[in-house]
Amino acid sequence: MANRAVIDMWGNSRTPERHRKNRKRHTMTAPRRPLIAGNWKMNGLQEDGLTLASAVGEFMKSQGAAGFEMLVCPPFTLIGAVGQAITGSGVKLGAQDCHPAAKGAHTGDISAAMLADAGCSHVLVGHSERRTDHGESDDLVNAKAVAAHNSGLSAVICIGETEAERDGGKTLDVVKSQIAGSVPGSATPANTVLAYEPVWAIGTGRTPTVQEVQEVHAFIRAELAAKLGRDAADGIRLLYGGSMNPGNARELLALADVDGGLIGGASLKPDDFAAIALSC
Ligand code: PEP
């Protein structure tokens, strides 16, 4: 299988193009269509948000039958307007968080059902900025993913180690425990995407080496196989996130177990976001 062929990659000399060929040759399930997802974070007022959304929509339309999918995750305030701006373009609409409950007395929160009602097909859960800023635990992230599933949304579950954890040689342990805690048993290729985002790479301009990214992604897929079964693990898309840009996207996206990107800063620049998509 593709992940077994590349699992021992530290220092391995195979090129990303070889990885891509390996994926095509060995994957037994339906091919995983790359997903290029933009996380706008707390950025965008009506005017610039709509300009950006329209540009992404126009780009996607210009691609015809593209070999990739695009997703934009604007702030809650722009979901309705962005949804209208991308209508008919094929670009998917997502949110950046949801509450685990379906409804109720949770002032200031937004449920997965509300997001679905507003036109979203996806929602990010467990982004490291929420884990850090709001103390979100794996249990809470898991409950949010279940809420997303129950409302018919795909959960984009984010995991990744801090710099101290990486320096301490704990990357795989952290990722293993986040998968055990954050990924619900209801996860399938149709309702779940996993984003591996080393915390130290987000917004810093730093990235792991491609060998390191592939090693972690292959490990994630093996952990998913142990938890959900081989077919589910082979079908679930694994995004890399953390300072992806037009200069590094091609080699990252060519890796056998990288099925797209979760992009923050570069997703706010339509030309960069498009260039990343064209790197698939
Ligand atoms: C992110 O916030 O998910 C992210 C990957 O940000 P950036 O691309 O800016 O590193």
Write a brief structural summary.
The two termini are 21 Å apart.
Would you kindly provide a written description of the structure presented here, covering whatever features stand out?
By secondary structure, the protein is of the alpha/beta class. The protein is built from 13 helices and 8 strands. It has helices at residues 2-6, 16-26, 46-62, 79-85, 112-117, 128-133, 138-150, 163-167, 171-182, 210-228, 230-235, 249-253, 270-277; strands spanning 35-39, 69-73, 92-95, 122-125, 154-159, 192-196, 237-241, 260-263. An 8-stranded parallel β-barrel has the order 1-2-3-4-5-6-7-8, surrounded by 5 helices. Strand 7, helix 12 and strand 8 form a beta-alpha-beta unit. Helix 7 crosses helix 9 (171-182) and helix 9 (171-182) runs parallel beside helix 10 (210-228). The longest helix has 19 residues, at 210-228. The chain is globular and about 45 Å long. Bound molecules: phosphoenolpyruvate. Phosphoenolpyruvate binds next to strand 8.
